[in-house]
Design a protein that fits this description.
It is built from 27 helices and 32 strands. It is of the alpha+beta class.
Length: 933
């Protein structure tokens, strides 16, 4: 029988009820909820619970845990959506992991190994017989069973054949995430607004991804064909797995459609009629999964780009200082290989990649003032032509074209040499934002050649992507090394022809036309537009300019472009217990993943690390930080434009390690001489928050799971600026007595906050008021003022503005994150804290390795610097809470806690409560294996 989900009222634990959504107001007023619910609710039925013993192939000894808010169930019928919107009731297992996740913020201080699962799920294989909630034979098949547990409703899929196993995985995925999967297959094709409505967030998402991956249907099919063809038996198995997985998805679509318990969003967006059931839910096909993969790869697994922005700031620096000194100043802010940066591989081993060449060749810097961004959106009508819609497009373009990619995710891994048990311990997971339903889903898959539990992106869950095997666990963080280059293609004939190896060649025009009308789910007025991309052999066009008077188009070439499907082989290997038997096997599997990730591993004896991605071998002399001419001499080595393949650096050249004392990663620099693709990866980085804490634990020895979780949780509440930079700022301020009463009061508050730990925490759980609230408001107001006053006078307005385009000055918890807005949890990834730290230390006369080219605060004078800091601090003290936290669609102006709070951004009809801010992975594992096969 199909799984049904009963209703329940939202608990009032750490959750804070959201305001009534604007999305369904008109519909709820015009319809009788009670009548609709009565007509739409089917009798809830479940098969009797079947006993299932804990699996014998589990070597974790009950010491593996995980968590993924808000809940496993991401599907809701129309009736359930209406009840949620009107009364706050939740479908079963839609929100039951949100409370435990939220409660760690206030509950970690007293944590013990015995209480970890108050905040996490037991991720042991199998389901104890008394915890079986339901048993299901999807499609009536005899070769697969889906068991769901009582606590979380996670599907435990067990198959006796490979086909049946993958069929069950697809069926379970559709049960839990069908609507979300449908949303993202449309995002991947640039068709979201036509499918789900013209809301600003929908426009932003489809524009951001279409610019980076403007694929045709033929491109998508070619990806899977090529991935299968070049991987032999594993490639054939992957294709068979995908087809079985799709059969399971489509079987659920048909069953839920005929039974009328499909996701209610199809009714609310007009794809189905809630009365007659007319309408169609389209079946999934192979190319849909490639479209999904292209979104995930673009969002989390690609690094680099931004070369045009780099060129513009270099030109500004050289204009102010002259070529030699300007280049020196630029390089000091770029921090591509900073000697003070925290490293994941910290044993001193060097992995050179992306370094500045001794003599750059082929650079194609634009003529001053000639750069224009290539338009993406054309032919706007209706609501697409408003100023708000154009602003959304500008934000999406900035996000897509920047090298400051939202990597997120963290990892803490400690060798058994330093643990109480003698076994390695890991606390790690991806920081993928917060959505309802969540982008990831939990599952356990057991079948021929597959044995794993963990998280996978919805619609790509034929394998567990991050999780555990029988006697090992693995996870990833975004690494972001540079696999994207910008080429200057010289134009010929007109603006849509270019020289390729001396021949005038036509660009390829790819476009997607979208239109929308108001629905019950999205009241955005009717509108339409066309997204148009011009593609060359060197990738899509991003900018136009002149170089030495010649008209050029700047294109973006990514090594994973046309290859997002390739990584399926690596994930297949990670799920195969016959393949992964130790750290070297794990590293070998990760080598088959072309996304730019840092991969971490732990079993009962070993830990390991590997940095994945197809790092192109660049021509000698090419500086990856700047545009180069689209000429054969400057292309990637052995580059084939038809397939977009080239020579890649060997696995031995990628940062990797086995059994280092500990590993930490929070999207920081990987290893010595491995150039950072993004800016401002220097002396202060959020990776320091983990490194400082784990280093102390390792030095003391006797590390436990609870202690490592506490280190993560403490870092998750820390304000990076306050912990690592504010003490130095106060040292300057206090270099002479502070006589001004306003400044003195502000200093006292800031010092008290630092002394208390510099964390953004509630006075008590659920108070929705920060301890040290005034100090937090002061720093939030002061930081942008002090950065501008410290650096703009010395740099000049033009260069300061250019540098802020390369690296935003701040990223507080309330900062926006592209089209999805604020309330995203992740904070302090990009900012000027390293610059401020190095500059202030230089003014204080302290030793600085890899310092800035000049002293900026007060021109290097301690007294003048102090005056600047006190003046801006007084200005900040006069700023009201409403000015610092101006309010948005979630919060009233001046509500500090709410401004920081995490919101599960709705991608469907179910909404959830806000939770207090934490800067931690969305899906997270805590593991300590007791034995090995």
């Amino acid at each position: 029988m199909p799984r049904r989900t009963p209703h329940r009222r939202t608990p009032r634990t750490a959750l804070h009820r959201l305001r009534t959504s604007r999305r369904f107001t008109g519909f709820l007023k015009s319809a009788s909820i009670c009548v609709l619910v009565a007509g739409l609710l089917s009798p809830l039925t479940q098969t009797p619970a079947a006993a299932q013993a804990i699996a014998s192939n589990d070597y974790c000894g009950g010491q593996c845990s995980d968590i993924l808010p808000p809940g496993e169930n991401g599907n809701a019928t129309l009736a359930q959506i209406l009840l949620n919107q009107a009364f706050g009731t939740q479908p079963a297992h839609a929100e039951d992991q949100l409370g435990p996740y939220a409660n760690l913020a206030s509950g970690s201080s007293g944590l013990t190994d015995a209480t970890i699962n108050n905040f996490f799920n037991d991720s042991s294989f199998g389901v104890p017989s008394d915890q079986v909630a339901s048993t299901e034979k999807p499609g009536g098949r005899g070769d697969v069973t889906i068991v769901r547990d009582k606590k979380t409703g996670v599907p435990h899929i067990t198959g006796t054949t490979r086909y049946g196993t993958e069929y069950g995985a697809g069926y379970a995925a559709a049960e839990d995430r069908l609507w979300l999967m449908d949303v993202f297959r449309h995002v991947g094709r640039g068709r979201l607004t036509s499918f789900a409505g013209g809301a600003a967030a929908n426009q932003g998402l489809e524009q951001e991804f279409y610019r980076n991956a403007p694929y045709t249907e033929a491109d998508l099919q070619a990806q899977i064909d090529n991935a299968v063809a070049k991987n032999g038996a594993r490639g054939q198995q992957a294709l068979a797995d995908v087809k079985a997985y799709l059969d399971g998805i489509n079987a659920y679509i048909d069953t839920s459609d005929s039974g009328r318990y499909f996701p209610g969003e199809y009714d609310l967006t007009g794809h189905k009629d809630p009365i007659t059931n007319a309408g169609t839910i389209e079946h999934f096909k192979v190319t849909d999964l490639v479209a999904l993969a292209s979104v995930i790869g673009s969002l989390f697994g690609s690094g680099g780009g931004g070369e045009v922005g780099n060129a513009l700031s270099l030109i500004a620096a050289q204009s102010k200082y002259g070529v030699e000194e300007g280049t020196k100043v630029w390089e000091s802010f770029r921090e591509r290989n900073d000697p003070e940066a925290v490293l994941t591989v910290h044993d001193g081993e060097s992995f050179p990649y992306g370094a500045k060449p001794a003599e750059a060749k082929g650079e194609a810097l634009p003529d001053a003032g000639s750069v224009t961004q290539e338009p993406l959106v054309y032919d706007r009508t209706g609501s697409a032509a408003t100023a708000a819609a154009r602003s959304t497009s500008a934000t999406a373009a900035k996000t897509a074209l920047s090298s400051a990619r939202r990597g997120m995710s963290n990892a803490l891994v400690v060798s058994g040499k330093y643990t109480a048990s003698g076994h390695p311990i890991a606390v790690f997971g991806p920081q993928t934002g917060y959505f309802a339903p969540q982008l990831l889903m939990l599952q356990e898959i057991q079948g021929p050649g597959i044995s794993a539990r963990g998280a996978s992106f919805a619609g790509l869950s034929m394998y567990v992507e991050l999780g555990r095997g029988q006697d090992y666990s693995w996870s990833a963080t975004t690494s972001g090394q540079d696999i994207i280059d910008t080429y200057a293609v010289e134009l010929c004939q007109d603006d849509h022809h270019y020289l390729y190896h001396g021949t005038c060649t036509a660009m390829d025009q790819v476009e997607q036309k979208n239109s929308w009308s108001p629905t019950m789910a999205d009241s955005t007025p009717a509108g339409s537009y066309t997204m148009r991309v011009w593609r060359t052999k060197y990738g899509p066009v991003e900018y136009r300019a002149t170089v030495g008077g010649k008209k050029v188009a700047y294109t973006s070439l990514r090594s994973s472009y046309l290859h997002e499907a390739d990584s399926i082989i690596g994930f297949q290997m990670l799920n195969d217990p016959d393949y992964v038997k130790g750290p070297q096997d794990f590293q070998s599997a990760a080598q088959h993943i072309n996304y730019t990730f840092n991969w971490f591993y732990a079993d009962s004896r070993h830990t390991a690390y590997y940095n994945s991605g197809d790092n192109p071998v660049r021509a000698d002399g090419v500086d990856a930080d700047f545009p180069v001419w689209a000429q054969q001499a400057y292309e990637w080595r052995n580059w084939d434009p038809a397939a977009n393949t080239a020579d890649y650096t060997p696995a031995s050249a990628h940062p990797h390690s086995v059994d280092q004392d500990y590993y930490v990663s929070w999207n920081n620099k990987q290893a010595k001489d491995y150039a950072a693709a993004g800016w401002a990866d220097g002396s202060v980085h959020r990776g320091n928050l983990l490194d400082d804490r784990v280093k102390k634990l390792v030095a003391a020895g006797g590390v436990t799971r609870a202690k490592l979780v506490q280190a993560m949780a403490d870092a998750a509440l820390a304000d990076l600026r306050a912990e690592d930079v504010l003490p130095k700022l106060l040292k300057v301020v206090n270099s002479s007595p502070v006589t001004d009463s306003t400044a003195a009061d502000a200093v006292n508050k800031l010092q008290a906050w630092v002394a208390a730990g510099a964390r953004r925490t509630e006075t008590s759980a659920g108070s929705h008021t920060y301890a040290d609230a005034d100090a937090i408001r002061l720093l939030d107001a002061w930081w942008p003022l002090l950065v501008k006053a410290e650096f703009e006078p010395g740099l000049g307005s033009d260069l300061y503005t250019a540098f802020t385009g390369n690296a935003p000055i701040d990223e507080t918890p309330s900062a926006g994150h592209g089209p999805t807005g604020s309330h995203a949890g992740s904070a302090f990834q990009y900012g000027w804290w390293s610059y401020v730290d190095k500059d202030i230390r230089a003014v204080l006369g302290e030793n600085v390795r890899g310092g800035l080219a000049e002293k900026y605060c007060g021109g290097g004078s301690l007294g003048a610097c102090r005056d600047i800091l006190i003046g801006t601090l007084k200005q900040a003290a006069g700023t009201t809470a409403a000015q610092v936290y101006p309010g948005d669609d979630q919060c009233s102006a001046g509500d500090q806690w709410c401004a920081d709070s995490i919101v599960q951004r709705t991608l469907g009809g179910i909404k959830h409560g806000r939770i207090s801010w934490q800067n931690r992975p969305t899906f997270q594992q805590v593991v300590e294996y007791t034995s090995h096969r």
